[in-house]
Every structure is written in structure tokens, then in C-alpha cells.
Amino acid sequence: MNFKPIPNKFEYLNWQEIESIAKNKRSTVIWPFGAVEQHGPHLPLATDSIFVDEIISEVFKLFSADIPLKKLPTQYIGFSPEHKGFAGTISLSSNLITSMIKEVGGQLSEMGFKRLILINGHGGQISLLNAAARELRSFAPGMAVFPCFLWSGVNGLSELLTKTEIEDGLHASLAETSLMLALKPELVGHERPNEGIKGKIPEGWSLEGNAPTAWLTDDFSKSGVIGDSRGANETLGKNLKELLINHWFKLIMNLMQSDWPNNS
Fold first, then answer.
1. Which CATH number belongs to the domain containing residue 94 in this structure?
2. Is 84 exposed, middle or buried (0-12, 13-18, 19+ CB in 10 A)?
3. Which end of the chain lies in a sparser environment, N or C, as judged by fewer CB atoms within 10 Å?
4. Is 46 contained in some domain?
5. Does 122 fall in a domain?
6. What is the dihedral of CA 131, 219, 46, 164, to 10 degrees?
């Protein structure tokens, strides 16, 4: 008998396998989103894409092969206009990304898939993916859509990172540098910049949060880093990696064990 295991990657399946999986009442597709944008002089352009791709790939290893959950190829190029002042950044327009999500998501819905998780590793496109997910939901009402940010809602981050890093380490700082040291240390340079957010922000306002401003990286930084990367280390990176993997495995497992939002 010619038996082949069913891979987790959507693009490695044949059309009959897709057709069969999509019929499952819990059929779910994960579509990771990242960016190709500057991450200072010490991290690769694909940092956000590498993070989301590596973490979700590790999460898939914890699931059984027969679960109706598949992964689309990671979308490496994203929405990064805030970093266009630095060489190497490639940014797609918000309209293009929204259209792409609607087209791909709509086709997945037509195939019969019940749920689509947009798992995003780039903080600069959180709002965009939220809006695109809402448009897709209206366009393809038969499929649930979940726009998620890799670092959001992860319990335990405050035990590993300082309050300053969580609030001000916005880009290529301690957390990102440490995680890359744990995932792909060969891509990490030797510099450890400490830069960004000079001066006092008016009371009640912030760069991100409740009353944000549409900042550009070169408003604050010549190196491309916003935060302090000097204490980055592989041990912290491994702890962050484990935290992220466990968090997303638990959340996705909770979803896969449920028929939500189509509970009967």
C-alpha cells in the first residue's frame, strides 16, 4: 500500500486531501504574517517573519497529524511604512494586503474551511489585519476569522522582561534580539544599540496604547532600534520561545477542541 503521512503545510497536500480536510466541522487554516523591514544593524530584515514562522512551526509539532489544522506559507512581506527611511525595508500597501486577505480567505471559505487564524508577528500591522479580518468576515460570512498578534496576551512576559522593555522596547530591542539569539544566532550581529524615545511624551499620550501617534522610526532612532538591546542573551531568548510556543499551543488547542463559533 502506498501510504504517505498528511503534512501540516497546506501547499504540500493534494486537492483531494484539501477537499477532505475542509469538510471537517473544525477545519482551520493558520496564515502567519510577518514583515521584511529594518531591525537595526544587528538583526535580519525578516525578523518578524522568522519569529512567527518558527514559533508556529514548533506549535504544529505538538499536534497529532490527523488534526484538521493546516498552515499556509508565511507571508513575509507586510505593511511597514514606518521603517521605509531605512534601506532594505519593503512595504506593501494597506489596500493590497487587505485585498490579498479577502481573496485568499474567500477562496478558503469556498473550499469549505470553517476558520482562518491570521497570526501576525509585526506590531506595525496589528490594526490593519484587524480591519482586513473584519472585511473578510463580511465578504465570507461562513468562515470565522481570528486576527492575532504573536506577542499579545502571553502570560509570563512580565516575569521575563522589565517594565521598561515591555513599554519602550518597541523594535529590535531586548526581547527581539534575545529571541533571535535562541532561534537563529548566526543571523545576529555583534552591535547592541540603545536608542529611541528621547524627551517626555505629553501626559496621557503614548507611542502605542490608548492614545497613540502614527510614529515613524526615524523620528526617534538613527540605528533603527527603539529600546535597549544591550542585555540580550540566548537564555532569555529560549525562555521567550518556550513561553510563546506554550501559549499558542494552548490557545489553538482550545479552539480545535471546540466547534466555536458554530456550536450546535
1. 3.40.50.10310
2. middle
3. N
4. yes
5. yes
6. -90
159 belongs to a structural domain: yes
Is the residue at 262 inside a domain?
no
Which residues of the chain, if any, have pLDDT below 50?
Answer: 1, 264
Per-residue pLDDT tens digits for 136-163 = 999 999 999 999 999 999 999 999 999 9
Domain count, the chain: 1
Task: Dump the DSSP string for the chain.
Answer: -------SBGGGS-HHHHHHHHTSTT-EEEEEE--B--BTBTB-TTHHHHHHHHHHHHHHTTS-TTSSEEEPPPB-----GGGTTSTT-B---HHHHHHHHHHHHHHHHHHT--EEEEEE--GGGHHHHHHHHHHHHHHSTTSEEEEEETTTT-TTHHHHS-HHHHHH--BSSHHHHHHHHHH-GGG--S---EE---SPPPTT-BSSSSSB----GGGT-SSS-BEE-TT--HHHHHHHHHHHHHHHHHHHHHHHT--TTS--
Q: Which domain holds residue 144?
A: 22-257
Residue 202's pLDDT is: 87
Distances (CA, A) of 253 to 22, 81, 213, 247, 250: 18, 34, 36, 10, 5
Length of the chain in terms of residues written? 264
